[in-house]
Structures are given as C-alpha cells and as structure tokens.
Amino acid sequence: MTQRGSSPFAPSGYKVWRNVKEYGAKGDGVTDDTVAINRAISDGGRCGANCGSSTIYPAYYNTQLIGDPLELPTILAVSSFVGLGVSTSDVYIGDQEEWYININNFLCSVRNFKVDITRTDQGAYVCAVHWQVAQGSSLKELEIYMTQDASTTQQ
C-alpha cells in the first residue's frame, strides 16, 4: 500500500504512516515488541497524559493499528500480562487521573490481527481487547485466541 498520507497541521516531518519495525519491533513471536509499538504510536510529539489534544499535537487516540490482511500478524501477550486489554481504546487509570477523554475517542481502528492471550496466567484477569464504542471506531478481522478452560478468567 502506498503511504502518501499527511497531516496539514502537524509539524514538518510528522509521520502519518508508521511501521513498527522502523521503531525496533522484531515481530518474531519471541521478542517483546511492546516498547517499539508504543514508540511508533507516540512518535512525533503526540499528546499523552495531561494534554487535551489538538490538530497540531494529536492524542494517542485517533490511531489506526492495521496489520497485513493477507498474513495476519499476532499480538502475543507475555505470560506476566494482566489487565483490561492487550489492545484498548480507553485506558482506565483510576483515582480521577483519566486522560483518555471519552468524547474525543474518534476514528480508532484495529484490524487484521491475531490477539493471543493463551500464555497469560489462567487465574489472572486478562482481556484480549477492551474497546469503547465511539464515532468512526472499529474492530475488523480480529482472531482472538484464549484458553478453552471453562474456569479461566481470560476474556
């Protein structure tokens, strides 16, 4: 796919299209690529905690995660993962420290991935995908893999 996107209000050189491998991801099923994925999402001065977002410095939401539709990449949760979503559109922090503003949760998409949580602790609270419904948001072509044990808390 030709990567010709641009952001009219972003600083010069702002990358609209990002390949996680350019940020150090190996994609080999062994290496933990979390840091590389997060670096790709947050690159370019994007707006994180304590920032209301703008057209110049967009927040981490409004992000599209798109895998190869012909060969779905696998997002594999490490055995120590516990939480409300290997992929999430709305991070819950608690103690009134939320910075993902519900009414700004637009144009998020995750598509063409396998999400595998089978290696996580069977007794821990683990969720493959936590998704808040919003305008223009979507989950498409996702394969979710979890244990078949009826006593697990995996979701």
TrEMBL record:
InterPro entries named in the record: Pectin_lyas_fold, Pectin_lyase_fold/virulence, RHGA/B-epi-like_pectate_lyase
Domain Rhamnogalacturonase A/B/Epimerase-like pectate lyase: 17-154
One Pfam family of this chain: Pect-lyase_RHGA_epim
Superkingdom, natural source: Eukaryota
Name of the protein described by the UniProt record: Rhamnogalacturonase A/B/Epimerase-like pectate lyase domain-containing protein
